[in-house]
Amino acid sequence: MPVFVLGNEPIFPNPIFAESNGLLAVGGDLSTERLIAAYRMGIFPWYGEGDPILWWSPDPRFVLFPREFRLSRSMRQFLKKGFFTVTFDRDFRSVIEMCRDVRRRKGEGTWISEEMVSAYCRLHELGVAHSVEVWHEGLLVGGLYGVALGRCFFGESMFSEKSNASKTALYALVKRLEEQNFAIIDCQVYTDHMRRMGARFIARKDFLEILRRCVDSRSFLWG
C-alpha cells in the first residue's frame, strides 16, 4: 500500500489503505481540526521529534472495553487505603509534560514533542482532550491524558512517579467513563501493562464500526 502525503485540508484517506504496520499517511499539521478529523476516523499521530508527522491506523487495534477492566485484589485493597487523591482536568499541561519527562528520564524516548504538547493543550482548551491527575501530599505523582469524542476515549499516555499511581489513574478513568456510558478506550498500541488490566486486540474493521456508532459528531461527551 502507498503512504499518502497529506495536503493543507484536514482530510485523510480511508484507514483500510494503511500499510501492514499501520502507517497510513505523512505530513499535514497538528491543528485541532485535523486532529479531531483523525480521531473520528481511528487515526492518530505518532512520530519522533524532528521527523515528519506520521499518521497511523493499526490492524488489529489494541483496546480496552470498560466492562472488561481487570484490577488485582491487591490493587483493590490498596485503593481502599486512600493513599492518593485523584482529580480530573485539574492540570492537563503538567500531566502531558510529565508523561514526556518521565519517559525521557527512564531512557525510553518519547513522541511527545513541544509541538505535541501545544496541540493537545489546544484540544484541552476546547474540551476535547482530558487528563486524570494522581496526587500524594500535594505532589503530582501519576496521571494520564487522552481525547474524548462521543462515547469513545482515545488514550495517549500515562506516567507514574510512585508505585500504583498510573493504575490508580486508569481505574479512576474507567469508573468515570462507565458512569458516562462510554463504549471503548483506545489503547492504540500493545503494552503488557494494559493487557494485564483487560485490554485486547480487535480487528480494525470492528474498531471503526464502534467509532461509527459511538463518535458523536455534534458534541464531545465528558462528565
Keywords:
33% helix; alpha+beta; four-stranded mixed sheet; 26% strand; 223 residues
Strand order of the largest sheet: 6-7-8-9-10-5-11
Q: Please identify the structural class as seen in this structure.
A: alpha+beta
Strand content: 25-35%
Distance from first to last alpha carbon: 40 Å
Order of helices and strands: EEHEEEHEHHEEEHEHEH
* Most strands sheet: 7 strands, mixed
Could you say which overall geometry the principal axes of the C-alpha atoms support? globular
Number of helices: 7
Query: What is the typical, i.e. mean, pLDDT?
Result: 94
User: Which stretches are low in confidence, meaning pLDDT under 50 for 5 or more residues running?
Assistant: none
* Total beta strands: 11
Radius of gyration: 17 Å
What proportion of the residues is helical, as a percent range? 25-40%
